[in-house]
Specification:
single chain, about 90 residues, mainly alpha, 4 helices, about 0% strand, elongated
Length: about 90
């Protein structure tokens, strides 16, 4: 652990970096996204890409498949975010 005596030998930038690291450790800034929310986002984006490709190629069945995929991804993401919010409110 560094004390104030040690700080007088360090440059201002090093002191600032040390203070920021200590602050971030105390604050615990890293908040992870729940696994199912990531899966929902991936399905949503993949479905949107498939809809775009199906529309570009004039393939209605491919666009419909992508639309269903995007809707399912949105539902999974939405449900996951609501569940994680309720879990955080209890804790």
């Amino acid at each position: 652990m560094l004390t104030l005596v040690h700080f007088k030998y360090l440059s201002y930038e090093v002191i600032l970096v040390i203070k920021i690291r200590i602050y971030l450790r105390k604050k615990k800034m890293s908040k992870s996204i729940p696994r199912y929310a990531r899966i929902g986002m991936v399905l949503l984006v993949m479905g949107a890409i498939i809809v775009g490709i199906g529309t570009y190629l004039s393939k209605g069945s491919l666009s419909l498949y992508g639309l269903i995929m995007a809707i399912c991804g949105f539902i999974i993401y939405f449900a996951s975010s609501i569940a994680s919010r309720k879990k955080n409110m209890r804790a």
